[in-house]
Amino acid sequence: MRLLGVCLAVLLASAVARAEPPRRGMREQTIQAANRAVAEHRLADARELWRALWEAAQAPEAACNIGQLSSRMGELVTAREYLAICVRLDANEAHRIELARVEARLGRLIVRADPDVIVRVDGRELDPAVHETWVRAGDHLVEVERAGRRASAPVLVPAGERRQVTLELPPERPELPPERPAPRPARRPSPPPAPGPTWPMYVGLAGAATAAVVGGTALALAEDRRVTAVRRANQISPMNGCAAPRPGCDEVTDIAEEHFTLRTVAIGAFIGAALLGAGTGVYWYLQPDGASVTVARRW
Fold first, then answer.
1. Which CATH code fits 106-170?
2. 3-state SS string over 83-115?
3. Number of Cβ within a 10 Å radius of residue 146
4. Where, by residue number, does the polypeptide cross the bilayer (predicted)?
5. pLDDT tens sequence for the chain (299 residues)
């Protein structure tokens, strides 16, 4: 039994020994690839390789190289972040000098606001516990927000200096009840239109009656002239009247023409009387009290 335990211990030790070289070998290969990328001026690729080492082992060497490469690339805020980690893990004088050079080219911004607000600088949200950040030198936009209320202010931060900005949110507006629409005033009924004048009715009736009288008179005279013409023609020739030209037939012809003229006048008078009567009836139907006119206007 004791021999079995010794054998297991030896096997585990040998397995660990076999697994360790690949890890170290991978780290060395990554460092060599990063150094080769720097030599070829591929700074972004080199920084990504060092970042992978940092995420894998949190080695101070990786943080220092990320900071130095970011400084060479002009990304000073990122450079300051990793150089501060580098100095904290490895307090080397050269690293302190590099960190001081980067901070001299940056500015420090402090935002004074309520602790429960969201603070953003150039759209980047800050840590809720610490409203302070390093920024590049120049103009920046500071924003605070809470529950839909916002406030913002531009601020100029010179290199190597510190600036402080205080922002207060606008006061909350009390919720007002929804406005009710004002009641519409009662619509007054429009007065009925005034009845039309009555004189056209009387004129129409009088005209129709007159035309009827004229027509009746003309018709009576035409009938009288017809009878006279027949009697006169029989006196001239009882057999066939004025079928053939005879003395005295000219008078009969004149009387017959008067008959036709009077009959024509009678017919025209009766037609005029009918038209005047119909027009008067329509006027009376549409205009007695205005009701029919109102319906017609709506349509």
1. 2.60.40.10
2. HHHHHHHCCCHHHHHHHHHHHHHEEEEEEECCC
3. 14
4. 199-222, 265-286
5. 343 333 434 333 443 333 344 456 788 898 899 899 999 999 999 999 999 999 888 888 999 999 999 999 999 999 898 989 999 988 888 889 998 999 899 999 988 888 788 899 988 888 877 778 899 999 999 999 888 888 899 999 999 899 988 888 888 776 666 777 777 777 777 666 666 677 676 777 787 788 788 878 878 887 888 788 777 777 776 666 666 666 767 776 777 788 788 889 888 878 987 887 787 777 777 765 544 434 344 44
C-alpha to C-alpha distances, 27 to 59, 61, 274, nearest whole angstrom: 11, 12, 124
Name the token pair of 197: 């004048």
